[in-house]
């Protein structure tokens, strides 16, 4: 059962697709927030749908953020006919913390909880970075529960990339009276976001990362240590590898596509950073809907 709280989202839309994103007028949709029950406890969610929405779509965020990452695109996806559910991973956003020994499969179990709460047997799934890994893990083990899969920025890392990402620290900060621990978080965000352009996004997501820094780093070492190529080889559902040329996982995502070019589809946007969902919201939605409806 869903427990609901409402927030308003103002977006530009009109009737129909793809004209929805070509010439946009202004309307109001509601993103509802609440909690559902999962194996790790309460899972916080955002949900948005318009009247007559029929296709379930689950969104999974990157680390160390939350479902707030999708607020800019959820209304447009709902206007396109999707029942959109964005979940906070355990220990992220407002969700309860997973057990100390939680596996990627345990983190990915929130997808089953989301499907159950929506009273759906299957759904489209879109995951970004760490969320893409959870989506891939779930699709590899629950193919009948996934209609189509979008892996947006997939971390199939080579050794140099693995060493590079290992230098970032998103875990708990030692609190300093002079506030210098806050500067460490800001500098991490600057260094991990090449070619950023929007300082408001940088601030918003630095604060978001600090909010749960006692637990929102814990999926990261699991991602780094897992044989993701083996996960990708087990996927049997239609899958799009999706990236943008300015993000830090651009090469890794192309490498993931190259693992099975006869099976995976591929799309990319130009420029941007790993904040592409906010930076190019309309183009991002257009690519997602185009693939899911193809």
Structure overview:
It is a single chain. With 294 residues, the chain is of the alpha/beta class. The chain is 36% helix and 23% strand. The protein contains 11 helices and 9 strands. A 9-stranded mixed beta sheet has the order 1-2-3-5-4-6-7-8-9, with helices on both faces. α1 links the parallel β4 (55-60) and β5 (82-87). α2 (104-118) crosses α3 and α5 (180-192) packs across α6.
Helix content percent band: 25-40%
Main sheet: which strands, in order across? 1-2-3-5-4-6-7-8-9
What is the gyration radius calculated from CA atoms? 18 Å
Q: Characterize the main sheet.
A: 9 strands, mixed
CATH architecture: 3-Layer(aba) Sandwich
**Poorly predicted runs of 5 or more residues:** 3-27
- The general outline is globular
Helix run count: 11
- The total beta strand count reads 9
Class inferred from helices and paired strands: alpha/beta
Along the chain, the helix and strand elements come as: EEEEHEHEHEHHHHHEHEHH
Q: What is the count of distinct domains?
A: 1
Q: CATH homologous superfamily?
A: Alpha/Beta hydrolase fold, catalytic domain
Strand content: 15-25%
CATH class: Alpha Beta
Mean pLDDT: 88
Distance between the termini: 32 Å
| CATH fold annotation | Rossmann fold
